[in-house]
């Protein structure tokens, strides 16, 4: 196994552990925004200087810059998918709690007449 493959696998595993942790604090949200900004800046640079991606890929032991971009996009896709899943899961839990609270608030004793 090439060392870049090990690095990519480690990145995927670290992203998984990161996303499974509580993501509700402001520090975590700030790091996500910084990571997104770095991704956008790097993408613009790769568009403006496509030959440089091949140079960086060769430094990392990848044959072509397009392959390196593909690997990075796979990691970004996994992060985005897991982040969206976690966010929806949190929202579903909040909606369930809200529905329970409303149901308990409007509960009537058995046998009492409806208004």
UniProtKB/TrEMBL annotation:
InterPro entries: DUF2304. It comes from the Bacteria. This is Membrane protein.
């Amino acid at each position: 196994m090439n060392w870049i493959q090990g690095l990519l696998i480690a990145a995927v595993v670290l992203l998984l552990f990161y996303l499974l942790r509580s993501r509700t604090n402001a520090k975590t949200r700030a790091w996500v925004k910084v990571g997104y900004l770095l991704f956008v800046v790097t993408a613009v640079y790769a568009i403006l200087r496509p030959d440089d991606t091949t140079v960086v890929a060769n430094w990392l032991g990848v044959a072509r810059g397009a392959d390196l971009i593909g690997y990075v996009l796979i990691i970004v896709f996994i992060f985005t998918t897991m982040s969206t899943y976690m966010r929806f899961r949190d929202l579903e839990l909040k909606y369930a709690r809200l529905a329970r609270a409303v149901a308990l608030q409007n509960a009537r004793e058995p046998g009492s007449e409806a208004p």
